[in-house]
Amino acid sequence: MRLIVKYGGTSLSSAKQIKDVAKFVTSLSKENEVVTVCSAIKETTDDLIEIIQLIKKGNKKKAKQVTAKIINQHKQLAEQTISKPQNKKKLLEMLEKDFCELSDLVDGIVLLGEMTPRSSDYLLSFGERLSIKFVSHAITDLGKKSFAYTGKEVGIVTDSNFGESKPLMDTTRLRVAKTLEPLLSEKSLPVIGGFAGADQHGSITTFGRGGSDYTATIIATCIKADEIWLMSDVDGLMTADPKIASNAKVLKEVSYVEAIEMALFGAKQIHPRTFEPILSKKIPMRIRNTFNTKNMGTLVTASPGPETKKTVKCVSVIRHNALIDVRGGSMVGAPGTAAKIFTTLANAGVNVMMISQNPSESSITVVVKNADLDRAVNALEMELLGKIIKKLEVTTDVAIIALIGSGMRGTIGVASKVFTATAKKKVNVVMITQGSSELNLAFVVKDSDSKSVVQSLHDEFELAKIN
Ligand code: ASP
Ligand code: MG
Questions:
Q1: For a surface tag, which of 52, 79, 166, 196 has the fewest beta carbons within 10 Å of its beta carbon?
Q2: Which of 40, 18, 289 has its CA nearest to residue 135?
Q3: Residue 45 Cα, ligand 2 centroid: separation in angstroms?
């Protein structure tokens, strides 16, 4: 098989873990062609973000301290990770170049006193630039041939939307295949940096937080991989958060569309665009645990087997939200009302998580994060209160509960089962939405009720027995 194996930062947080990753991909390579995609080591990306914020705030001294911390941590780790002296020397030499460039970059930005989206992406890309060298040298240390490439070096070309770029797939496909095919035919093990690429002018761009998942699927389509494995610290996608439903189970198989919903609902954080490249190519993906490789994890495919088509597959919850109910008689039959409300919220930088409007059109309800509530209410009050809106009502501390599963489509009685279960728990349902795809039924309850509702729905749909 041709495999893309992607490791998140939590799988690369110590010398032992990096060595284990090297051992695992090396053993896989006995029977497979393997391309490894790496995220940054441990919390490096968080540290780089801290540097950006410190520079923006003008705290130059602290920014340089955090830079020094990243450099020292990586130096120490290099000492511990590589055993053969010549390999260690090579790694340290390569890292030294990156360290110099990183320090110069921070100094330069501090001097300019200006953080542009382009310089911010350049800085953020250093996490993966460093991590790939560790993994590839750890593989070399085991006696296998390995090369490290950043997203830019392997040939990922993107638009110039810094911080949230998208690949230009036709160019990317040609360039990535040209870099990787010869390496695979000579049986070496390429290690690619996730999260970043470069635009047509060669400036480094990133895909946004968690973007290494996206890199893995981009690379997979470029070289027609047979499977993609996303390795992290969980056993797979689960029927519920095991901290809430203690009998939650790992799902053996889900469809792409279900996995997209589950990723959005935070069952496991996956970069939202990860599935885009593979939807039409239908490359299967596995969500697996680096620390429990006996378990094959969750298989995500275009069309899961018929035996896995259960009605509901997962109950998830997004906690700590607020609900805003917007009312006004003049909203009725007035085209453009919703547009005004959502434009106002968008201009205030508020992300709307859930929307409902009753057919009388006299009220629109939206759910936002607790953290965005102040901004949202302020913007609506300033812009629209007394005009199209007569009244704003706010409920804080609510949770969104979502049931996900494509088997709900056309199945009678799901909603009745859900609301009977909540009623039995004496929990009040504040708002309900279901898209016409029937893939996701979501409703809002008081935050303090959310745990008992998740557990009771998990029981009601017998999710502990799902596989
Ligand atoms: N290192 C980047 C981040 O932490 C990308 C990734 O982890 O996928 O967001
Ligand atoms: Mg990461």
A1: 79
A2: 18
A3: 7
| Ligand 2 centroid to residue 362 C-alpha, Å | 44
Instruction: Tell me what the pLDDT averaged over the chain comes to.
Output: 93
Q: Does residue 156 register a pLDDT over 60?
A: yes
Distance from the CA of 213 to the center of ligand 1, in angstroms? 8
Same domain, 195 and 338: no
Ligand 1 pocket: which of 212, 214, 231 to mutate (most atoms within 8 A of CB): 212
Is 268's pLDDT higher than 70? no
Query: Domain for residue 258, yes or no?
Result: no
Identify the residues whose C-beta falls under 6 Å from ligand 1.
8-9, 39-40, 45, 127, 194-195, 209-212
Ligand nearest to the CA of 213: 1
Domain end, chosen from 209, 233, 257, is at 233
Q: Report CA(119)–ligand 1 centroid distance (Å).
A: 17
CATH number, domain containing residue 33:
3.40.1160.10
Query: Do 209 and 65 fall within a single domain?
Result: yes
Q: Over the stretch 46-92, which tens digit does the pLDDT of each residue have?
A: 999 999 999 998 899 999 999 999 999 999 999 999 999 999 999 99
Number of helical H runs and strand E runs in the chain: 15, 17
Residue-wise DSSP of 334-349: -TTHHHHHHHHHHHTT
Q: Which pLDDT tens digit goes with each residue over 302-345?
A: 988 877 777 899 999 999 999 999 998 778 888 888 999 999 99
Residue nearest to atom 8 of ligand 1 (CA): 210
**Overall number of domains in the chain:** 2
Q: What is the CATH number of the domain that holds 385?
A: 3.30.2130.10
- Most informative mutation of 195, 231, 273 for ligand 1 (most atoms within 8 A of CB): 195
Give the nearest ligand 1 atom to 8 CA: 7
Residues 435, 442: Cα–Cα separation, whole Å: 9
| Nearest protein CA to atom 5 of ligand 1, as residue | 210
- Do 47 and 69 touch, CB atoms closer than 8 A? yes
Closest ligand (CA of 194): 1
Q: Which of 198, 233, 268 finishes a domain?
A: 233
Closest ligand 1 atom to residue 271 Cα is: 8
- pLDDT over threshold 90, residue 97: yes
Whether residue 289 lies inside any domain: the answer is: no
Is residue 266 in a domain? Answer: no
pLDDT of residue 288: 95
Residue 346's domain comprises: 314-465
Residues 6 or more apart in contact with residue 266 via CB below 8 angstroms = 316, 318
Beta-carbon contacts of 125 under 8 Å, excluding residues fewer than 6 positions away, are: 150, 151, 152, 193, 195, 196, 204, 206
Q: Which burial class, exposed, middle or buried, applies to 214 when counting CB atoms under 10 A from its CB (0-12, 13-18, 19+)? A: buried
Give me the residues near ligand 2 (ion), CB cutoff below 5 Å. 9, 39
Euclidean distance between CA atoms 37 and 171, whole angstroms: 20
